[in-house]
Amino acid sequence: MLGMVSMVCAQQQQTVVKRMKTWRLSERLAIADTIPPDTSFLNYPQNNLVDRYSVANAYNGNLVSPIEPKIFFDRYTETDFLFANPYNPYIITPTDVTYYNTTTPYSNITYRSGGSTYRDEDHVNFIFTGNANKRTNFGVTLDYLYPRGEYANQSASRFAGTLFGSYNGKHYEAHGSLVYNKLKNFENGGITDPDGINTPVATYDIPVNLNAMSAYNYLAGYYAHQYSIGIERDVQVSEDSVAQVFVPVTSFKHTLKIDRAAKRYVEQEANTFYPNTYKDSVTANTDTAAVFTIKNVLAVTFEEEFNKWLGFGLTVFAENEVQRFTNEQLDQDSIMAEEWKSNTRVGGILSRERGKYIRYSFGGDVCLIGYKLGEFNLNGELEGRFRLFKDTFSLNANAYIRNEEPSYYLQHYVSNHFRWDNDFAKTYRTYVGGSINYPTKYVSTNLKVGVENLTKYIYFNEEGLPTQHDGNIQVLAADLQLDLRYGKFALENHAVYQLSSSSLLPLPTLSLYHNLYYYDLWFKVLSVQLGVDMRYHTAYYAPVLVPATGQFRVQNTTRVGNYPFMNVYANFHLKTVRFFVEYTNLGELFLDRNYFSMPNYPLNPAVLKFGISWNFYD
Q1: Partner of 351 for a Cys bridge, out of 8, 361, 464, 566, CB 3.0 to 4.6 A?
Q2: For residue 325, what are the β-bridge partners?
Q3: What is d(CA 25, CA 49) in angstroms, rounded to the nearest whole number?
Q4: Cβ burial, residue 258 (10 Å; 0-12/13-18/19+)
């Protein structure tokens, strides 16, 4: 069943039930995944693009800046475009599009702001969706984010918009979306002196290393459709009535995705930040790289109903992608080179999603033709659900083996500041992990443990160049979420313990998040949450951002961490309106100012933030 929010009201002595279903699709096979509607009020102040990305992140302290999770297993790759990875939490891709089915039109307007005088950040979001009939829905989202930054040369902006629609018929289903992202962020290279945050001057007047700008654009069109054949089945809807429902048995699917991603870096003035700049002309200091991709997937799914005597479903698919890579040519200003490449792969998934106690999914794919020839992925997940007292206890085990071709731009790249031509071998990754989940009325526990072995790991060295490690690196992590509730008080705890076997992959040993709050219903209509939260990680040799490429390089001279970043907030919900006020980095008032995300990149000082979100169901 898809996620649902309902509201009942009386109009002219008639009861009107308003319902909304929400889901997202996996890109390759367009498998619907239920998500809850974005209407929850608890912890709304923490629902920003950075805090919800990971427990700990490396970035310049301002939104829309390049970012890398400090939690290894939170790092993921949306595409094989190297320069997209640092913008992951800010980019809307087809897999991020939420589809709706609603009995009445739904819209939402959200506004968040905050910051010091003339350095505030503004975030405006608008959603509208409605059904043309009970099977067809269309909608649009608009999102504009303008954080000016607390430090010099740090201003950024992001515009993201989507058009989407869906049709859910008896035999035929279709989903389509068009997404556009335009990001721009200025680069300051960090402050020149770490003690600058202790000086009596305004943060904007602290000297910085660089005056440059990065831009990232992403445009994508996505269309997924399927035709299903099946059977009619009688379903008991009440004591004395039976209804017939259509149960799919076999589905034929096709997905098409066309997208273009482009990264640009521009220096505003001549500087010595990059000693290896290849061209002296200021007008030539623009680096550009782009990739254009067309991807088609054909699949056939035999539903569990088809294999009910065996108890599993089966999907087989074939995928073809054609890519055009664009890059500068050596020693030629404003002349771009294009290279076309393609890949064809096949794969399958065997799964059981309806088991009462045991569910599983095993899948894999292999590239048979193209420059990624021999790349493969095998993965499996096994879940058991059991009743323990009055609650459900679940155990999960998962594993994967991946043989991955390095990104095209890890192999070949030409710009005014960095150039390389590599012949890296494939990276081989194996992972084994599991989790325990046991939510109860007063205590909710979720524990994940995983270990990964990386062979031929690729990292960026101290000169900012990609380098392949000739050996193995192991990463072990334990991730515990323990939430305690009693009466009107709650304490949420999230702790991540990590061990890396190599300094080439530095990670904080312990990362923590704690959220203590009081919540209640006032005057029978106003939901209230008052609390304080904290993020902390142990000191380690954090990576450093390379602005020209947006990548994070290793360093072994400066450690950052051991600073509790605390916020105090008041959060409210009145009917269809959510609103909050929050004071961030409370510790600056009484702790040593050591709030660095990376060497020379401090987090924002103490500032006041607020936000409001209004839902409309008609």
Answers
A1: 361
A2: 291, 339
A3: 21
A4: middle
Is residue 292 classed exposed, middle or buried when 0-12, 13-18 and 19+ CB atoms within 10 A define those classes? middle
Residue with tokens 């004071």: 583
Task: Specify burial of residue 390 (Cβ count, 10 A radius: 0-12, 13-18, 19+).
Answer: exposed
The fraction of the chain above a pLDDT of 90, given in percent, is: 79
Non-local (6+) Cβ contacts of 491 within 8 A are 483, 484, 485, 514, 515, 516
User: Going edge to edge, which strands form the sheet with 466-468?
Assistant: 466-468, 458-460, 551-553, 544-546
Instruction: Please identify which residue in the block is written with the tokens 């771009």.
Output: 336
Pairing of strands 565-574, 466-468: unpaired
Contact 173, 167 (CB under 8 A): yes
Cβ-based neighbour number of residue 616 at 10 Å: 13
Tell which wins on pLDDT, 473 or 307: 473
Q: Nearest-CA neighbor of 613 among 45, 156, 19, 86?
A: 45
Residue 50 is classified by DSSP as: T
What is the Cα–Cα distance from 136 to 131, expressed in whole angstroms?
A: 6
42 touches 529 (CB < 8 A): yes
- The per-residue pLDDT for range 101-113, each reduced to its tens digit, is 999 999 999 999 9
Backbone region of residue 210 per phi and psi (left: phi > 0; alpha: psi in -120 to 50; beta: other values): beta
The residues pairing with 243 across neighbouring beta strands, listed in sequence order, are 235
Gap between the Cα atoms of 291 and 178, Å rounded? 18
Whether the predicted model's global pTM rises above the 0.90 cut = yes
What one-character-per-residue DSSP string does 372-396 give? Answer: TTT-EEEEEEEEEEEEETTEEEEEE
CA distance 347 to 361: 13
With beta carbons less than 8 A apart as the criterion, state whether 603 and 596 touch. Answer: yes
Lowest mean pLDDT among 134-148, 208-222, 269-283, 380-394: 269-283
Query: Residues 378, 350: contact at Cβ < 8 Å?
Result: no
- Can you tell me which residue has the tokens 């916020």? 567
What pLDDT sits at residue 433? 98
Q: Which amino acid is at 617?
A: Y
* pLDDT tens-digit series, residues 62-98: 999 999 999 999 998 878 899 999 999 999 999 999 9
**Residue 451 burial by CB count (10 A; 0-12/13-18/19+): exposed, middle or buried?**
middle
